[in-house]
C-alpha cells in the first residue's frame, strides 16, 4: 500500500465543512480510493440531502455580511489562501496524485496553477468598476454598480480536483459571493484541504462550504439548482450533466456558468516547426493521460508530413513511463477508473475495425494495477470513427491525414462541442485564417499548453458558456445594477 508522507496532517480532513464546522458523522460513509491500486485512502461521510439546505442557509446568512466586506479585505484573504497553497505545494500535490492517479509532477503543476487563480482574483477584487452614463433625459444621470450575485452552488469534476474549484471560488470570493461546493466523490480530499486552507486564510464561517455525497449526487445537484437562496450554479463536467443542471435551474432562472466537454482538434500544417509541433501535440494530448477537457482528441496532420510526424510522435510516446502517480520516475500515472479505460478501448477497437492503422498499440497494464493504460497511437483515422466525434478523455492519439485547409476547418468544426483547438504553422496567414474559422472558445497557435489564470477560459456550442479566469472571470459572479438619478439643477 502506498501512503504518501504528508507533512501537514491538517490537510487531510475527515469530514464535510459547513458553516465553519467539520462534520465527520453521518449514517452512511463512502470510501475514497487510490486509482493506482484501488486501496482505501479514507472514508468520508456520505451526507444526507438535508446538509445541502444547511450549507445553503449558512452561505446565505454569511452572504449578508460577506457582501459588505471591502474588496481590499477579500483580496487579502485570497492572497493569504494563495500563499498557504504555495507553502503546502508538496502535500497538496501528493493528495491530488493519491486520489486522482496523475503523476506527482503534474499534480505539483496543478497546485501551482490552482493557486494562481487565488492570486489573480486577489488582484481583480479591488478592480471591479461600474460606469457612469448620460441617458436620453438630460436631467437624469445613471451609474452602474456591480454587486455579488449571492450564494453560488459549485459542482466540480475529478480531473483537476483543486484547480477546477479555485478557478470558480477565486472569482466568486473576489466578487463577494459565498459558496456551497460539491466535489466529485472520487477526489474530495483536495476540496477539503482547500476548505481547511480557506479557514486558515481568514474567510469568515459560512463563506466556504463543502458538502459530500457519493450515493446522492443527482439529488444534491437538483437541490442546489432548485433552491431559491442559491443564485448561481457554476459547473465543470460533462455536457450531459451540464444539460441536466441547466434544465433543473430553469425553475429559478439561475445565473449559470457551464464549463463542459471538449473534443479538441490539433491541426498541423506542413510548414510548421515539426519538432515543436510533435512536442506540443504530445503535451496537449497526454496531459493528465488525456483526461483534460482541452486535451487533443483529433490530430489533423497535413499529408506531406504524415509519415515523419507519426514516426516522431510514436517515438516520444514510447518513452513515457506509466506507473503509480506517486512514484518519482512516473511521467504518466493511472486513469481514474475502469470506465475510463473501457472508453479508450472502445474507441481503439472501433477505429481499428474501420481501417485505422496501429502506430503504437498501447493497452492495459494490469501488471501495474487495474487502471493503468499504456498510451496508443492510431493513424489513417477518418470521420466514420467514434474518436472523431466523441471525446475519448484518455490516452489515444488519433491521427487524421488532411490536404486541404478549408476542408480541415470544416471537419474540425463538425462536432457539437467547441472548447479548445490548436493550430501549428509558420505562416501567419494560415494562423489567422484557421484560428478565425474554428468554432471554438480557445484557439492555441503553435503551443499545446495555454491554460493560465490571465487567459479567458471557456467554450462555445455544447462546451457551454461563461468565461473563467482573466479579466472576465469575476463578471460571471456579479450582477449589474443601474442607479438612475434625477438631478435638479
Ligand atoms: N470545460 C471545462 O473547463 C472542463 C474541465 C474539466 C472537465 N470537463 C469535462 O468534464 C468531463 C469529465 O468529468 P466527469 O466525468 O467527472 O464529468 P461529470 O459530468 O460526470 O461529473 C462532474 C461533476 O458533476 C457531478 N455530477 C454527476 N452527475 C450529476 C448530476 N446528475 N447532478 C449533479 N451533479 C452531478 C459529479 O459528481 C462531479 O462532481 C469531460 O467531458 C470533460 O471534458 C470540462
Ligand atoms: O480539464 C479541464 C481544465 C483544463 C485546464 O484548465 O487547463
Key terms:
489 residues; Aldehyde Dehydrogenase, Chain A, domain 1; 2 domains; seven-stranded mixed beta sheet; 14 helices; binds nicotinamide-adenine-dinucleotide; binds 4-oxobutanoic acid; succinate-semialdehyde dehydrogenase (NAD+) activity; Ald_DH/histidinol_DH; Ald_DH_N; Succinate-semialdehyde dehydrogenase
Outline of the structure:
Helix content is 36%, strand content 22%. It has 489 residues and is of the alpha/beta class. The chain has a 7-stranded mixed beta sheet with strand order 14-17-18-13-12-20-21, with helices on both faces.
Structure explained in plain terms:
α6 (188-201) links the parallel β8 (178-182) and β9. The chain folds into two domains: 9-260 and 464-482, Aldehyde Dehydrogenase, Chain A, domain 1; 264-452, 3-Layer(aba) Sandwich (Aldehyde Dehydrogenase, Chain A, domain 2), CATH 3.40.309.10. The mean pLDDT is 98. The protein is built from 14 helices and 24 strands. The chain has helices at residues 50-66, 71-87, 89-100, 104-124, 163-175, 188-201, 217-226, 239-248, 274-286, 306-317, 338-353, 386-389, 405-413, 428-437; strands at 16-18, 21-23, 29-34, 39-45, 132-133, 140-148, 151-155, 178-182, 208-210, 230-236, 255-259, 264-268, 296-302, 357-360, 363-364, 373-374, 376-379, 396-402, 417-418, 420-424, 442-445, 460-461, 464-465, 478-486. It is an alpha/beta fold and 489 residues long. It is globular. The strands form seven sheets. Strands 14-17-18-13-12-20-21 form a seven-stranded mixed sheet, with helices on both faces. It has a six-stranded mixed sheet with strand order 9-8-7-10-11-23, with helices on both faces. A three-stranded antiparallel sheet has the order 5-6-24, with no helix packed on it. It binds nicotinamide-adenine-dinucleotide and 4-oxobutanoic acid. Nicotinamide-adenine-dinucleotide is lined by residues 155-159, 164, 184, 217-218, 221, 236-238, 241, 244, 259-262, 293, 391, 393, 419, 459. 4-oxobutanoic acid (SSN) is lined by residues 159-160, 163, 292-294, 451. One of its GO terms (biological process) is gamma-aminobutyric acid catabolic process.
